[in-house]
């Protein structure tokens, strides 16, 4: 049963991924863009609006697929490992905010995570997972605002 806000958001993302994939297939088969009856929004426009992705239908589908797969991957983490990764992201975020309280992108946080790895404080896998978790949270926050 899906009964949490995170579960509902994930189910919506998975459904939107399927709808966008179908829309792309329709376009390729019939050699014309998919349109909703009654003039409603296409899956492509909804995904771009909700998640803030940019680019072609195919690139937006790839970004949405990365998001869905990333969420599935993070759900497999052991609780202790998940806590460690969250801690890394939080520490990197605090450092970035101390340097610039008005940061508008995740780049400074990514840079701090990379610095942790280069200093030997975390492993490469922990660094990659921290960057993935950060990206997922940015997408979730954007989607939550739309």
3D structure, described in words:
- It is a single chain.
- The protein is built from six helices and no strands.
- With 146 residues, the chain is an all-alpha fold.
- It folds into two domains: 5-74, no CATH class; 78-144.
- The chain is elongated, with a radius of gyration of 18 Å.
- The mean pLDDT is 91.
Quaternary structure of the protein: single chain
Distance between the termini: 25 Å
Structural class: mainly alpha
Number of strand segments: 0
User: What does the average pLDDT come to?
Assistant: 91
Major β-sheet, in short? none
List the helices and strands and how they pair.
Elements: H1 5-30, H2 43-51, H3 57-75, H4 79-99, H5 107-118, H6 124-144
Helix pairs in contact: 1-2, 1-3, 2-3, 3-6, 4-5, 4-6, 5-6
Question: What labels describe this entry?
Answer:
single chain; 146 residues; mainly alpha; 2 domains; 6 helices; 0% strand; elongated
Summarize the structure.
By secondary structure, this protein is mostly helical. The chain folds into two domains: 70 residues, no CATH class; 67 residues. The chain contains six helices and no strands.
């Amino acid at each position: 049963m899906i009964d949490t806000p995170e579960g509902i958001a994930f189910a919506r993302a998975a459904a939107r991924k399927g709808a966008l994939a179908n829309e792309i297939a329709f376009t390729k088969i019939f050699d014309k863009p998919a349109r909703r009856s009654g003039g409603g929004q296409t899956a492509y426009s909804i995904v771009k609006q909700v998640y803030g992705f940019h680019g072609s239908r195919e690139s937006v589908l790839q970004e949405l697929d990365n998001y869905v797969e990333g969420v599935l991957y993070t759900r497999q983490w052991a609780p202790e490992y998940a806590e460690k990764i969250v801690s890394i992201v939080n520490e990197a975020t605090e450092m970035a905010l101390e340097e610039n309280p008005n940061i508008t992108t995740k780049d400074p946080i990514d840079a701090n995570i990379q610095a942790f790895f280069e200093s030997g404080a975390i492993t490469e896998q922990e660094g990659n997972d921290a960057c993935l978790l950060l990206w997922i949270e940015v997408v979730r926050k954007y989607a939550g605002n739309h």
